[in-house]
Amino acid sequence: MKPTEKERFIGLEWLRFLLGCYVMLYHTSPNYPQLQRIFGLSELASMGFFATSSFFVLSGFLLAHVYVRGNALRDSAPRFWAKRFFNLYPIHIVALVSSILVIALMQWLAIPPDGPGSSVRFVVYDTNEILGRTHPELFQHYMDNLQLAFNGFLQLFLLQAWNPYFLTFNAPLWSLSTLFFFYILFPYFAPRLMNARRTWMWLTIIWVLYLLPPVWVIWKHLYGIPYTGMLQRVPILRVPEFFGGILGYALFRRARLRQQVMSVWQRRSLVISIVCCFLAATVLFTHGAKFWYFLLHNGLLLPSQVALIYLCALAPTPQSAWLQHWSPRLGAASLSMFALHVPLFNLFRTLEQFFRGNPTSCFSDWEECIAAAGNVQLSLGGYALYVLLTVLICVLFQEQFVTRARKSLVTRFLEKRPSMARLGRAESSNS
Q: Is residue 139 a part of any domain in this protein?
């Protein structure tokens, strides 16, 4: 069957939702010592970069499916950029503002251990040096007014991923900044990559090019600032993941057009190889030499990530009406989960500490009230509630705010107004 514009990949909807959940667990689960005591869980939860990279690959795959038609895009480049901006920026600006408000609340309440040091000025320099793990306080920094203004400017214009030294306000928002850079490149490169004759060769070339920067950094022993931040998020160095997704869809579409079907054993072998790659990477990252981080983060896992997207795209549409209903809703909320899970977690844990402490004493002894809140250990029951509420909030936020805002912006700026259309027809008939 030929892929069509309206075709939806149920497997990819669930995959991007699960990637959002994984990133959420990666950033929040270390706050729960109860989870860290479970054998192997902290190691498995430490591979957040695998989820982010897979999401970039998935974005290239899906955009190629939706927008590339033959040798050109379905829309003009300006129209494509506008649509992607209208989808991305409402999420970004709400996540940014909510992060600042939550930080202000934490700073005002000053509930230990994180409340007293909370500030929009607080950042941590990115480094992969051992000193960064043994003495993290050496890499903590409070921005001065100039740095605060400059990084605020970067945030407002979706440029924050280009700062290789530290992340500000809401760290995961760098991924939205990087995504928007990918969107800028898409109209120029996607049709060419989709119609390249030797797709496997180009995929190999992109993989090798992706590995060159981390190999150079390791060769030069440059594990500190700013090289760690550059490899982590500077968009130009993460482009191979996005291009890999586009080429992955080119292979997928070619196989569909030729009616080539993977056998059951081929799919099982692919699943086993992906799982083995992930487990081996987890062991090397958590227990191997420090150079493994750069290789695993920047390129070494790209083939397994492209294979994961390809395999999930092959998943058949389930018969369950419940799954068919929730798949697109949860998948669509994944980007909101990437952007909002940190401010939601900071708000949730602050409120949990406050209300499980001794809130009634706040009317008589504020210091005792805050001290009691600081002695509260976050509960696993509360964490489960946080995860469920975050998913629910992000689904509603995506549907009730982001989707409506995008439709409103598209209607206002991209669609011709009826009055102008009628005027154009009248002028045509008169002439």
A: no
Least confident of 13-17, 71-75, 163-167, 244-248: 71-75
Number of H helices, E strands in the chain: 20, 4
With respect to residue 20, please indicate whether it lies within any of the assigned structural domains: yes
b/e code 186-213 from CB counts within 10 Å (16+ = b): bbeebbebbeeeebeebbeebbeebbeb
The residues pairing with 69 across neighbouring beta strands, listed in sequence order, are 72
User: 10 Å Cβ neighbour count for 277?
Assistant: 19
One-character DSSP codes across 223-276: -STTHHHHHHH-HHHHHHHHHHHHHHHHHHHHHHHTT----HHHHHHHHHHHHH
Domain that holds residue 94: 10-114+171-430
pLDDT band at residue 368 using 50, 70 and 90 as cut-offs? very high
Report how many domains make up the chain: 1
Q: What is the pLDDT of residue 2?
A: 44
Look over the chain and give the mean of its residue pLDDT values, rounded to a whole number: 92
Residues written for the chain: 431
CA distances from 17 to 35, 55, 207, 363 (A): 22, 10, 26, 43
User: What is the distance between the alpha carbons of residues 255 and 415, in angstroms, rounded to a whole number?
Assistant: 36
CB atoms within 10 A of CB 378: 18
Element of type H or E holding 158:
none
- Is it the case that residue 8 has pLDDT exceeding 50? yes
